[in-house]
TrEMBL record:
Gene Ontology terms: biological process: DNA transposition
Protein name in UniProt: Transposase
Domain of life: Bacteria
Organism: Youngiibacter fragilis 232.1
Domain Transposase IS801/IS1294 stretches: 2-108
Length: 167
């Protein structure tokens, strides 16, 4: 509604010298993907939070951050839809974009420069030669050959039609 104020706000952001804090994850790549997935591929509200849909209202679970407890909120259908649509991106917008060194136009060239500057150290693909079963064990600490309830390895594994067997 006020383009000149917004442009001023953007100018301040562009002139700020950002210093990101980047460190290795504690639990590995799988944990990072799970964490990011919660934010990048979610919808405004999940079906499990909606408790009642009436002729004129929608009731859903919300978290009261002051008390730390969960409660229910009832909104008119119009207000619920208005709030839901606030989370829908406008046409042409995407959820994740890459800027700077990771922008599509300059990524390959700039990453090569960075690798040269850091002495040629590159990411080591720690999952490269692992089988599907080994990937499950390493990334998610899941062993399909062991019962998750009793710990027994007397599990019968069968292939389903059309599904490839994990090695």
């Amino acid at each position: 509604k006020q383009p000149e104020k917004f442009n001023g706000f953007l100018s301040n952001l562009y002139s700020t010298e950002w210093v990101p804090h980047i460190k290795e994850t504690f639990k590995g790549a799988a944990n990072v993907i799970e964490y990011l997935g919660r934010y990048t591929h979610r919808i405004a509200i999940s079906n499990s939070r909606i408790t009642d849909v009436g002729e004129t209202s929608v009731t859903f679970k919300v978290k009261d951050y002051k008390s730390g407890s969960n409660t229910e909120l009832t909104l008119s259908n119009e207000e619920f839809i208005r709030r839901f649509l606030m989370h829908v991106l406008p046409k042409g917008f995407v959820k994740i974009r890459h800027y700077g060194i990771l922008s599509n136009r300059t990524k390959r060239k700039k990453v090569a420069i960075i690798r040269a500057l850091i002495g040629g150290r590159v990411y080591k693909p720690i999952y490269k030669d692992l089988s599907g079963l080994q990937l499950l064990k390493k990334m998610f600490s899941i062993d399909p050959g062991v019962c998750r309830y009793c710990g027994s390895s007397n599990i019968r594994r069968e292939s389903l039609n059309g599904v490839k067997k994990l090695e």
